[in-house]
Each structure stands twice: as C-alpha cells, then as structure tokens.
Design a protein that fits this description.
Blueprint (H helix, E strand, L loop, with lengths): L2 H28 L6 H18 L8 E6 L1 H7 L6 H14 L4 E4 L10 H11 L6 H14 L1 H7 L6 E8 L9 E2 L24 E3 L3 H6 L2 E4 L13 E3 L1 E4 L2 E4 L1 H9 L5 E7 L8 E8 L2 E4 L5 E3 L11 E3 H6 L4 H4 L3 E6 L7 E4 L2 E5 H14 L8 H19 L6 H26 L6 H33 L5 H10 L8 E12 L2 H7 L2 H21 L3 E6 L2 E6 L8 H18 L1 H6 L7 E16 L4 E6 L1 H16 L3 E4 H5 L4 E11 L6 E9 L5 H18 L3 H14 L3 H15 L10 E3 L3
Parallel strand pairs: 1-14, 1-15, 2-3, 2-15, 3-6, 4-5, 21-23, 24-26
Antiparallel strand pairs: 3-5, 7-13, 8-9, 10-11, 11-12, 16-17, 18-20, 18-21, 19-20, 21-22, 23-25, 24-25
Length: 749
C-alpha cells in the first residue's frame, strides 16, 4: 500500500473512531444507562413543539365540562357544595338535559354533616332518644335530612363515573385507604404470570361507599406520570392495586359511553428473553385498539389550548338555564377551574391548564383513535438512525468544502426533523428526536474541528508551498486525495504553456511607469484566473510573459486538454480587455501562446539563496520556442505534435514541420481550432484545403500549392497563407536542395 493510501486509511479510521465514540455516548443515553438530563429536556421541548404544530385546534362538542368556576361559587357558595345541591345538578343533567355519561373529576371521600344532623346527634345522646316513639321519628327525620343519601340516590340507574385517587406512597400513620373502590376492570387472575411494570399504588382515597355502590363505575384522576420538568404529557390508563387493575377516569368514561365493552390487554411476541418473550402492545376497548407503552401509559392528544371543549358553569345547570343543545346526549365531566381549588396543571399547550380538560382531551383521543404510540422498537430505530448519521458525518463531511459541509449538516438536520414529523403525523408514532439532532450536531462539530485543526495543518503546509502557484481548490483536492506531494525533482509527462504580450517594448514606451504597472496588473489577473480555472500551476511571471504547467504537483491525466483550454481562454480574456483598455486610453494588446506536452523534470530547483518549484527539459524549451513562432505564422496559439496527439477530439490546423533552436529532430506544429464536433463545415473545408496546399508544397508542386493558397486568401486572407506563398516564390528563384524534407528551420527561436 502506498503512503498516500495509508494516509487516507489512517484519516478515515480517525474519523470513524470519532463517530464511534460519539455514537457510544449517545447509545448509552438511548439505552438509559445513564440518561442525560439535557437531552431529555430538549426532547420534552421538541415534543411540545410537535404537539403545538400538529394539534387540530378545533372544539370537540361531544364532551362538555360543567365547570365549578368562580361565578358558580359566588352563587352557590364556596366549595364543597351541599350534597343536595350536587344531587340537584345530577338530576338536571340526566332528567332535563338527557346527557349520556357523567364523570366526576372531584373526590367525595367524606360524608357531609349538616346542622340538622348535628342536632339529631345531640338528641340521640340525651335520654329523649331512648323513647321508642321518639327514636323511630328521629330515624325517619335523619333519613330525610341525610344529603349524602340524597346525592347517592341521584346516581341510581344512571351512567355515572366517580373519581378516586391512588397513592403511590403513604405517610407515617396515614390510613392505607378511605372510601370505596369500584370493581377492577381487569382482575388479578387475568394477568397472573405476566410481568408488566404497571404503576403500583400503595393506597387510595375513594368516594363514600354509598356513592360508589350506586355509581356505574369509577376511575382514578391522579397523575402519577409527570415528566421531570413538571409538564403533564402522559397519563396511565390503568393502575394496579393489590394485583387488580383499575381504570383511569379518562378510560372509564368513554368505555361507559360505548356501552361498557370488555377491556383486555394485547401482547406481541418478543425475542428479548429479558421480557419473558412477550411485550405489551395495546389495550383493547372492545374492538378498539389503544396503543400503550409497557406501563399502559399514553400520550395525551391535546386538541388545542384551553377551551377546546364547551364549558358550562355549574350554576347554570343548577338553575336549569344552561342551553339544551350544548348538553343533550353529551359526555359531561364535572371539574373545577376556580383558582382556589388548585386543579391546574402545566401542559405542552399551556402552563396553567385545567385538570379536567386534560382528561377531556384523553377521552376525545380514545373515542377518535388518535392516541400517539411509542412502541419499544422505536429504540432500535433510534439506534439505527444514530448509526447512519455517524457514518454520514464520518464519510461525507471530509469530502465537502466548509460551506457545503455546513449546508449538508443543515440538510441532515432538516431531513431528520422531516422524517420524524412524517412518522408523527402519518404513522402516529412518537420517535425520539433530541438524541438524533444533538448527535448530528456533536458528530458534525467534532468532524469539522478535526478537519480544521488536524487535517488543515496539511492543507496549510500545501498552501504555504504551492499557494502562490495553484488555486486553493487544487490545494484542497491535493489534501483530500492523499497524493504524495514531493518537492524533490522527478520526471513526469506534463504540459507546459508560455504566453507573451506582442509588441511589449513598443507598448511600454507609450505609457508611464504607473500606467504600465496598472495595465500589467489588469492583464495578468484574468490570465491567472483562467489558468487556475483550468487546474494549472503558475510557474512564474517574466515581465509580460507567463509560464504555467499542468500535471504537477497534482497529477492530471488531462493535462494537455486543460493546457490547451487555458490557452484558448487566455486569448479570449485578452480580447475582452480591449474595451476597458480603450476607455482608459491604453493601446490594445495581443498575446501569443505556445503549448508543449511530453516528458519533463519537475521539482524545487535553485540555489541555497533562492529556490522555486519549476519544470525543465526539452519539452519545456519547445513550448517557449512555439510561443515565439506565433508571430511568424500569424496565429495566436501553437501546440506541439505531442500535445495534438493527446487530443483526438480537437481539430487542429497543421502549420508546419520545423526544426527549432536547440532541437535536432523536426517537430510538427499545429494551431488548435476547437472541438471537432463543434466545427462548422466552412472551417473544416479551409483546414482541409490548407492541408492539401502544405502537402503539395512539401512535394515541390509549387503551382498546385500556390493556386490553393490564393483560393484560401480570396476567401479569408490570412498571414499564414502569405508565409507559404512567400516561400514558394523564394523556392522558385532558389530551389531547395535535392534532399530537402519539407522542414523549415527556425534557428533564432
């Protein structure tokens, strides 16, 4: 393996190692060993943002909240209200408004004691109560005055769901239970042997036994699953107490409205032996499937801000003045919005959100089937996406320019968010997002910093050595390619270009020093830009002359093509300067360009006092000679036979067969015309006619050559044609020797 390949593999291993370490850290978070609080906070924030972006924002009038508000307390008295007042409200709701189901987000754990009941108790303690007639009458009166009984009787034969509270812990000397519980929705025997991490309660505070006995069922309304930031995002549908499973208020109410279908648990097979081969998949409410996590916890599908359900003041129900159309055949939840009752919660859609409306949102979601799910396999998906991001940042980022790399990272972030939002909206899946975004940023920053602080040292070295010769893009490519960059002399097949301003001496005599300097700067800038655009290396500026080469320090198998394209581009750039020069009163300029391709030596050459990265050899000398010949043939650019042979798709006009100063062997020289496929027919014809004239000339067929050249001049007069016409006239006067091979010798150039 070459040193360049070894370097590339070493850099790749380093980058993969950076991504692997970062991946391992984030994988620990995903696996909860340990969890990073900062990522959890970001995840909670992003969850809230998704809720706000996707919530419908409509009002669900199927569920109505009878509100224990401030106005109702002013009219009916401070809470708690007398039980007969509550009984009246219940009677009105069912008798007058014909509601479907009534759920209480209120706890009735203690019996009400009225002043009449206290008087009867005092009479019982006196001796009067021992008289049989008096005792019987007291019993009759007590029954009539017992508002608790009156309230309990209002539940009979009606779909009423009482509320109760589970306790996850007990204070010292605190009773384990008060009041009564409804029948469990799933008895312990139904889940015997199944390992599920239900929320386990240690005690409860339920409604009075008489109330619970007359109610259809009951549901807990406590919130044991509040996130670390105190926001109410999830709620359990079931809690376990002494092995039995009890429903939440938000589960019991829609279940009752649907006709009390059976409730069961749905399990999916799982290969993870740690989970005993099964995984809790969903809760079944009849034929309705409710996706749940392993704790039977669901995300609350908030419809919108507070007020997403109709509110009716309790006082209006008590007085019978509430609109019939709002309440008829509706699910009704009784709860409190009055600030003094402290039933306020922090939610993704509001910091002071009424608790009963949170239950209403969950009831609505259960009825509509809009409960989002986060199945356990999303952890595997999260791992997979983290792995993909790790590979992308390690393999793609190093190949990109800084701005492009930044755009790539931004695009990756947006793609991740778009995919996540699609899974949220189209699939109903809650897939963690914070870990993916944070990992993308962390891995990208580490990779970019590694590239800047470590790998950029090599780029800075290359820029220091070659920055004055080649464009920055090639410096970056040299570094990315890992090519061996040696300053020592070596032999390579390359192309070299020479250009020179024609008539520069005359030009310099017409301008003062300041104008001449300005002119040369404005001339050399576009010339240099063209060379750089075509991947060339500037060797040196020699007054008005420029020397450049292709194929070093970065290897270029298209060196001849790039050199010829650069030469043609330089000629166009000089022509484009004509108007600007004319406006400044400067004379127009023209350049001659010579290009030669072949073997040459390249490397640092010089003395201990001065050294330069340059090229030497016969091929280089030939390029210089070719540039000088452009004036004699009246063309802008001449290339060597070695260059022309490397460009079979280019059209060339063969100019001559020459022997230049310093070379013994003759060399064919050409003028590049352009791509053969783009050449017009008229141009093809002229090239062919000139080639026939040159062939006749070399065969000493002067008449044919002369006639063809005159014909070409009549079409388009060219100095080149006149050069051959002058030679023909000279050879007519002084014929060439018998061994003449058609080679013209240029011994001064």
């Amino acid at each position: 393996m070459s040193s360049a390949a070894s370097l590339r593999w070493f850099r790749l291993c380093i980058r993969l190692g950076i991504s692997a370490v970062s991946l391992a850290i984030f994988a620990m978070h995903v696996a909860s060993s340990p969890r990073f609080e900062i990522i959890d906070r970001i995840e909670n924030y992003l969850y809230d943002v998704r809720v706000l972006l996707t919530m419908p924002g409509t009002v669900d009038d199927r569920i109505v909240i009878v509100d224990i508000d401030e106005a109702s307390q002013l009219e009916l008295g401070q809470w708690p209200w007398p039980r007969d007042t509550l009984a009246t409200i219940v009677d009105h709701l069912f008798n007058d408004y014909a509601i479907r189901v009534l759920g209480f987000d209120v706890l009735f754990a203690e019996a009400e004691e009225t002043s009449a009941e206290r008087l009867l108790a005092e009479l019982r303690q006196s001796g009067i109560a021992e008289i049989p007639q008096v005792r019987d009458e007291l019993v009759r009166i007590a029954a009539e005055l017992d508002s608790n009984v009156r309230f309990a009787e209002s539940f009979i034969a009606r779909d009423v769901v009482t509320g109760f509270v589970f306790k996850d812990s007990l204070a010292p000397n605190e009773p384990q239970s008060t009041g009564a519980l409804p029948e469990p929705i799933i008895p312990a025997a139904a889940i015997d042997g199944v390992s599920i991490p239900f929320v386990d309660a240690q005690g409860f505070a339920g409604s009075l036994p008489a109330l619970q006995e007359n109610a259809t069922t009951g549901g807990f309304f406590d919130a044991p699953v509040i996130d670390s930031d105190g926001v109410f995002r999830r709620a359990p549908l079931l809690q376990r107490y002494r092995g039995d499973l009890y429903p939440s208020l938000a589960l019991a109410v829609p279940g009752l409205s649907l006709g009390s279908p059976p409730v069961s648990l749905s399990f999916a097979s799982r290969k993870d032996e740690r989970m005993s081969g099964i995984e809790l998949d969903a809760l079944l409410l009849g034929d309705r499937r409710v996706p749940v996590n392993e704790q039977v916890t669901v995300y609350i599908p908030y419809r919108g801000p507070q007020g997403s359900f109709p509110y009716v003041p309790a006082k209006d129900v008590f007085s019978g003045t509430a609109p019939q159309e709002i309440l008829r055949d509706r699910i009704v939840l009784i709860g409190a919005s009055a600030a003094g009752l402290l039933d306020l919660r922090s939610t993704p859609v509001g910091q002071r959100y009424i608790g009963v409306e949170a239950h209403a949102n969950l009831v609505s979601g259960l009825l509509d089937g809009t409960i989002l799910q986060q199945p356990s396999w999303t952890i595997g998906l999260e791992f997979s996406l983290l792995f993909v991001i790790a590979l992308l940042t390690a393999l793609v980022l190093p190949r990109l320019a800084p701005i492009t790399a930044l755009l790539f990272v931004i695009g990756l972030l947006f793609l991740t968010m778009a995919l996540n939002l699609w899974m949220w909206t189209a699939q109903g899946l809650v897939v963690p997002l914070a870990s993916l975004l944070c990992f993308t940023l962390v891995a990208s920053v580490l990779q970019i910093n590694y590239g800047f602080f470590v790998e950029s040292r090599n780029k800075r070295h290359l820029s220091k050595v070659f920055g004055q010769y080649i464009p920055p893009s090639l410096v970056a490519e040299m570094d990315a390619s890992g090519q061996d960059v040696s300053l020592e002399g070596e032999s390579r097949t390359m192309s070299v270009l020479f250009s020179d301003v024609r008539g520069f001496t005359t030009l310099s005599e017409k301008l003062d020093a300041r104008e001449l300097t300005q002119l040369m700067n404005e001339f050399l800038t576009p010339i240099t830009r063209v060379i750089h655009e075509h991947r060339g290396t500037i060797d040196k500026y020699m007054g008005d002359a420029v020397m450049a080469f292709w194929g070093a320090p970065l290897a270029d198998d298209q060196h001849a093509r790039h050199a010829v394209q650069a030469g043609m581009g330089m000629i166009r750039a000089v022509r484009d300067l004509g108007d600007d020069f004319a406006k400044k009163g400067w004379p127009p300029i023209a350049v001659g360009v010579g290009v030669s391709s072949g073997n040459m030596n390249v490397g640092n050459m010089g003395s201990e006092f001065r050294i330069a990265y340059t090229v030497l050899g016969d091929t280089v000398n030939l390029g210089s000679r070719l540039e000088g010949l452009t004036k004699q043939y009246g063309v802008d650019m001449i290339v060597s036979d070695g260059t022309a042979r490397l460009l079979p798709d280019f059209a060339f006009r063969e100019l001559d067969l020459v022997r230049v100063k310093g070379k013994h062997e003759p060399v064919a020289i050409y003028e590049p015309v352009g791509l053969a496929s783009e050449l017009p027919d008229s141009e093809r014809e002229q090239i062919a006619l000139f080639a026939s004239a040159v062939a006749a000339f070399r065969k000493r067929n002067w008449d044919t050559a002369q006639a063809t050249l005159h014909n070409l001049n009549e079409r388009t007069e060219h100095h080149l044609y006149n050069v051959y016409l002058d030679r023909i006239e000279q050879f007519r006067r002084e014929p060439p020797p018998a061994d003449w091979d058609g080679v013209f010798e240029h011994l001064t150039k």
